[in-house]
Amino acid sequence: MPDPTAAAHPAPEPRTGADDTPAAADPAAPDSAEPEPESAESAESASAGAETDDAPVLGSAATAPAIPPNAGFRLAAFGALLIVVLFAGYGLGRLNNGTAATSAPAATGATPAPSSTVIDESQPHTHGVSVPVPGANAAGAAVGGLSLSSSGLTLTPVTTTFQAGRAQKLEFTIHGPGGAPVTTYAVVHDKPLHLIVIRRDLTGFQHLHPVMAPDGTWSIDLTLAEPGSYRMIADFTALVGGAQIATTLGSDLTVAGNYTPVTLPDPARATTTEGFQVGYEGTPGTAATQPLLMTVKDAAGKPVAVEPYLGAYGHLVVLRENDLAYVHVHPETRLIDGKIKFWLSAPSPGTYRMFLDFQVAGKVSTAAWTVVVS
Length: 374
Fold this sequence. Notes:
This protein is α+β, with helices and mostly antiparallel strands. It contains two helices and 19 strands.
C-alpha cells in the first residue's frame, strides 16, 4: 500500500532512455551524470516513492497502464483499482454460488430431504424392502430384523430376561444418529410401531403393538410361555430430521429354564386355527415376485368374509429358519373372489414359516405354514 507521506513529498520522476521508456532499474550500473545533492528529507521521500513503484500491480504486467508519478493520483488510482477487483470478485462469487445451487452435491452432514419413495399403503407392498412389482425379476427380497442397529437407528431394550409363563413388562427405546431417543414416528397400517416376538424354533409367534411414553420409551406387557431364546423384531418408520426412515431392528430375549426345541411341521398348503380352515395357492420363489392367494373357510369348508385389520385384509409375516430373517408383506386392497392376494419374493432358498393375521367377525386369528423354497 502507498506510503501516506508520498502526497506531501512527491517522488522524483524516473529517468528515461533514448526511446522514452523508463530505464531498467540496475543498482550495479553507475550513472554517467552526477546527481545534485539531496537533503535527508528528500532522500527519504524518494526512497518511499521507489518502494511504492516496486510494489506488485494486479493484472497482467504487459497490459497494465503506467502509474503516473504523482503520488496523490497514484493513491486514487489504486483505490479505484481495488474497488474494481472487489466488484469483480463479488460477481464471480455470485456466478459460482448460482452454479453450486443447481449442480453441486449437498454438503456432508446436511439434513436429508424427506423420502420421495414413501410407501403407498393402498398398494401391495413389503415392509423394509422395495415395493414388489408383480412379475418383476428379483434376486430375492431384502430382509430385516437381523441387527440391533441400521440406518443410524439403534434398538435398546431395557431388559432381555423373562420368566416363563409370567406377564412381564417389555421396555425399549429407538435411539437416533445423535444418540437421543426418537419420539416421532409415521403411522403405518394404523400403528406407529409393529412388534413381532417369536422363539428361535419358530414357535410362540406374537404380533404386538406397544405404546410409547413422551420420552420415547416403548412398553408392553409380554408373556413368553416356554423357556428358550426369543427374538423381538421392531418394524417402524421413524421421523428424524424431517426424513422418514423405514427400518426393522431386532434383539434377543431369554427365558430361563429347560429348553426343548420343537420340530417344524411338514410343508402343507392348508392348516387349521381356531375353527378356521386356511389355505394358500401359489409357490414362493427367489427368481421373481410371485402371487399368493389366501382362503379362509369355516369348519364346514364354507368361505367366510374376512374383514380389514390394521388397514389391510391380512398381514403376512415370513421368517427364515435359523437366523429369523424377517419379511412383512401386505396384500392388494381388494379381495380376489373372496381371497386375500399377496405378492412375495423369498429372500433365499431355505425353510420358512409363514404367519397370516386375519380378522373375522371382529376377532383376529393367526394361521401358520411351513414353506420350503428351492
